[in-house]
Amino acid sequence: MKKLYDELLDAYSDQNLNRITGKLIELYQNKNHSTIRNLANRISKYVVIDEENDAQCFSRLIMLYHPDRGAFFKNNIAALYFAKNLEGLEKYKHILLMDDIDAVKVVVIDDDIDYCPEYVWDDLPEEESEYFDSDENQYDDYFEPGEVEKSFYNAVKLREYGRLTIEFPTWYLEDFEEYEMTQQGLDSLDGIEYCKQLVTLDVSDNRISDISNLWNLQHLEELYLANNEIGLIDTLGNLLKLRVLDLSGNQINDISPLFELENLEYLNLVGNKIPKSQIETLRNKNVIVMI
User: Fold this and answer.
1) What is the pTM assigned to this prediction?
2) Do residues 245 and 223 touch, judged by C-beta distance below 8 A?
3) pLDDT digits over 50-75, tens only?
4) Which of 185, 240, 195, 231 lies closest to 211 in space, CA to CA?
5) Residue 121 burial (CB < 10 Å; 0-12/13-18/19+)?
6) How far apart are CA 104 and CA 34, in angstroms?
7) What is the predicted pLDDT for the residue at 142?
8) Element at 200 (helix H, strand E)
9) Domain 148-290 - what CATH class?
């Protein structure tokens, strides 16, 4: 136990945590998502991470190894050691598997390469662009090419059924607890308000500017909005269960609506111009803030 205790205290030093976090950030910035997933898989014996979702995978790893939580981790390790709790100590051994992270190569990817094309909204075949009303036995709506509303609701229909003509009652959305809709060219979140049971939502890498439809999603704990066109985030102040929030790559300059979120643990603000005083306010609440 003494040997493991000493190893863990050394592993959770500020220097080592900065080393690990720095590499993770470098990998994420260069879109080396497969490498990050491999790192998550490496520690899967100790920590369960959904490595299929890039943003979630990255945020989980950062929360495990961010230097701002170093003191918290070391206090826990000391308490377990003095309580002679070997099983508890061993749960922290995952960090030892990151010892060689300096050797992990970062591959610079050309930003002009599109690895995940959007749904082909504007090229839907004509027969898929008509909505058939079975009650009236007539076509009562027609989507002209280029006029399809690129909303969350329509994107769900395309993903689940492959066409927009399907009759899809909004109450079907009430059962979703987790949904990912990244890089799909979304212009709006219309329809998301019906997903009342959502706990995790990822709509990163779209063209969303208005997030007001999120207002009543009271069960949301994890929200990924990276790389959109968001400026105002007042709506987020109503999501009191939020723990993880990714707002990187947007146009936000005021995060004061987040000050009342008592459960917030992690916030990614990279690429936004936020006053230092606001960032410090959240850090003083023990929120991990990335800038």
Assistant:
1) 0.81
2) yes
3) 767 788 899 999 999 999 999 999 99
4) 231
5) buried
6) 12
7) 33
8) strand 200-202
9) alpha beta
